[in-house]
Amino acid sequence: MKKIIATILSIFFTTTIFAKNIEILGPTTLKGPPGVVINTISDLTKNNGLKFVGRQSSGCGEAVDLFDNAKEPIAIIWSDTLYKHTETTKQNCVINFETAKPIAVTFAAYDVCVRKDFTLESGKTYTIGNAKFNPTKSMTDHLNNNNKNIKFKNVSYEGSAQTIVGLINKDIDVGYIAAVNSAPAIAAGTIDCLYSTGSTKHGQKPLSEFAGKNALSEYKLGMMVFVKNMSAEQILALEKSLTNGFISAMDQQNLINSKVGINKADLDKFIFTARANVQYQ
């Protein structure tokens, strides 16, 4: 009888801890790389009693405000572009790191892509599309300093998915696209990706071979998962869930350098990179 009561109490205790949905906020969007991370976390944790649900916010300022002022368990995908967004948007896009716990990190490389069988010819000028929250002026500046005397004129899109559509529809000649988005289009045979800041799965060459070694050629969008107001039991269940599949899931989605279990050195390096990104984006 005591065992039965203990089991019932254990079930009740676990249900009480894990019953509510835990919102996971995207920095600016639930699409693209942040959406991939959010969906993966939701899938990997659902069998451990955690219910992560993505929540769209109007911008990084609202997302950070919701996260910092939450009283219930909550999570956020915080990217290393958000110090820059704080400066450019005059919002506060930087979370309170003292009250947040880092859980995992992953990075999105970026590809320079063209329509299928489209050739970049030396000495010509092309339009290049990119997501508006990626480097823009510095991106075209760096790419214009290439070894083929090619010049680019920038066209801004809402995200990488829209950039691909613009590329396929011939609204632009070239796209600067997150590898997580470019991979399905490559597989579908609609685009070719020639150069990358880190992805090699589809035969991309290093971007540095085209535009030289600079901040852009090494640029990868960093995304770190933070939580707050979660119990020790919830955090243990979360980390256990991600340890058993997060890295392989990110690799399948063309996200790189993933890690579960963030120490102080990892966090300090991530924040340092985020601060440095302000200078060249």
Question: Would you kindly provide a written description of the structure presented here, covering whatever features stand out?
Answer:
The protein has helices at residues 2-18, 32-45, 60-68, 82-89, 137-144, 160-168, 179-187, 208-211, 232-243, 246-252, 264-277; strands at residues 21-25, 51-55, 74-79, 101-108, 110-115, 125-131, 151-157, 174-178, 191-196, 205-206, 221-228, 255-260. The chain has 281 residues and is of the alpha/beta class. It folds into 2 domains: 2-107 and 221-277, 3-Layer(aba) Sandwich (D-Maltodextrin-Binding Protein, domain 2); 110-218, Periplasmic binding protein-like II (D-Maltodextrin-Binding Protein, domain 2). The strands form 2 sheets. The chain has a 6-stranded mixed β-sheet, with helices on both faces. A 6-stranded mixed β-sheet has the order 7-6-8-5-9-10, with helices on both faces. The radius of gyration is 21 Å and the shape is globular. The model is unreliable at 1-17 (pLDDT under 50).
Which structural traits does this protein have?
281 residues; alpha/beta; D-Maltodextrin-Binding Protein, domain 2; 2 domains; 11 helices; 40% helix; 25% strand; disordered N terminus
Overall geometric form = globular
N- to C-terminal separation? 65 Å
Order of helices and strands: HEHEHEHEEEHEHEHEEHEHHEH
What's the total number of strands? 12
Q: How many H/I helices?
A: 11
Low-confidence segments = 1-17
Total number of distinct structural domains: 2
Corresponding CATH superfamily of the largest domain: Bordetella uptake gene, domain 1
The CATH class designation of the largest domain is Alpha Beta
CATH second-level architecture of the largest domain:
3-Layer(aba) Sandwich
Cα gyration radius (Å) = 21 Å
Structural class: alpha/beta
Largest sheet: spatial strand order: 2-1-3-11-4-12
Average of pLDDT: 87
CATH topology assignment of the largest domain: D-Maltodextrin-Binding Protein, domain 2
Largest sheet: 6 strands, mixed
Strand content: 25-35%
Classify the helix fraction into a percent range: 25-40%
